[in-house]
Amino acid sequence: xxxxxxxxxxxxxxxxxxxxxxxxxxxxxxxxxxxxxxxxxxxxxxxxxxxxxxxxxxxxxxxxxxxxxxxxxxxxxxxxxxxxxxxxxxxxxxxxxxxxxxxxxxxxxxxxxxxxxxxxxxxxxxxxxxxxxxxxxxxxxxxxxxxxxxxxxxxxxxxxxxxxxxxxxxxxxxxxxxxxxxxxxxxxxxxxxxxxxxxxxxxxxxxxxxxxxxxxxxxxxxxxxxxxxxxxxxxxxxxxxxxxxxxxxxxxxxxxxxxxxxxxxxxxxxxxxxxxxxxxxxxxxxxxxxxxxxxxxxxxxxxxxxxxxxxxxxxxxxxxxxxxxxxxxxxxxxxxxxxxxxxxxxxxxxxxxxxxxxxxxxxxxxxxxxxxxxxxxxxxxxxxxxxxxxxxxxxxxxxxxxxx
Length: 404
Fold this sequence. Notes:
The protein has 404 residues and is of the alpha+beta class. It has 14 helices and eleven strands. It has helices at 22-28, 41-50, 53-67, 84-90, 98-112, 188-191, 193-211, 233-246, 272-275, 277-292, 310-341, 358-369, 376-382, 397-402; strands at residues 71-74, 79-80, 114-120, 129-133, 138-142, 148-155, 158-163, 171-175, 219-222, 263-266, 346-349. Strand 6 (148-155) and strand 7 form a beta hairpin. The model is unreliable at 1-37 and 391-404 (pLDDT under 50).
């Protein structure tokens, strides 16, 4: 069946992710209009990750927690304690270990909705190295049937093409669900883009407030001897210079102001809208945390009492955010590696070694152990363990290597 309706470009030419209307929207944004950031991956990463503390901490918290989970490799009958694939995963390349590789992969999925993992080696054998590729440099090339026929990786003016031949792809593409895109995923940072703009604007407002002696500025009213209310050009320039030099900035906070005749200082206090501005910033921070699935309590955001305690929030964070992400990514990577090696293998997180889920694990084991109507094999199956006596703990890696 040909999926012609999935074709996005004619002739199989590479497509680009960036929107052509982004620069136009930015150019026409003027006074009285809200100027939102362009919704491309590079800009969103800059304003939402490197330029926003809530987005930065959310991505780091999820990626580090997910990459720290131990992984298990098994087939339908046994769980491997030693395997060539486990060796490659533990040391995927000379510059990275397992945790660093998967942290980069999870972060790419969170920031762009897409993660790309490259395998170095020959198809049909265990890969020699694994590398995470930057998603902002990767573009998918769809074929006549809508499925990818290649991936283009562009750096500067140079481009490398990864060909997909007979369904064999040297690149594993992990993507989040996107309701209106057939080839790319939707990232949480895109859903939180509006809240990120609000939070960054509030931070800039607070910085400007601090630069102006940490209070709203007042007004200088001029009344000349002849009743005129306008300063000459020289008087205006001199007054502006004096204000900028001696009466603005944190260094000059609290310095008394000496005004000449005809000038009257009218101080201004905080308005109710100014007092509510900090609450707007905190609400935006909670929306950013909500988009990433991080309980605001774990980020130190005040005003959130959804969870009874920190421990409960941590369990919800692992159960609702970390584990679904790890299960999805490891399943995709495991399936891709299985096709490459020709073995029916499954790569998944070891839930028995997650400290945050120890209470739930103890309760589950107690319930299963107390079920007298279940056999030992049924209990092991319920706990996700291979059949008894089929473990290959400590198997000889050299003997397994001969099977490839």
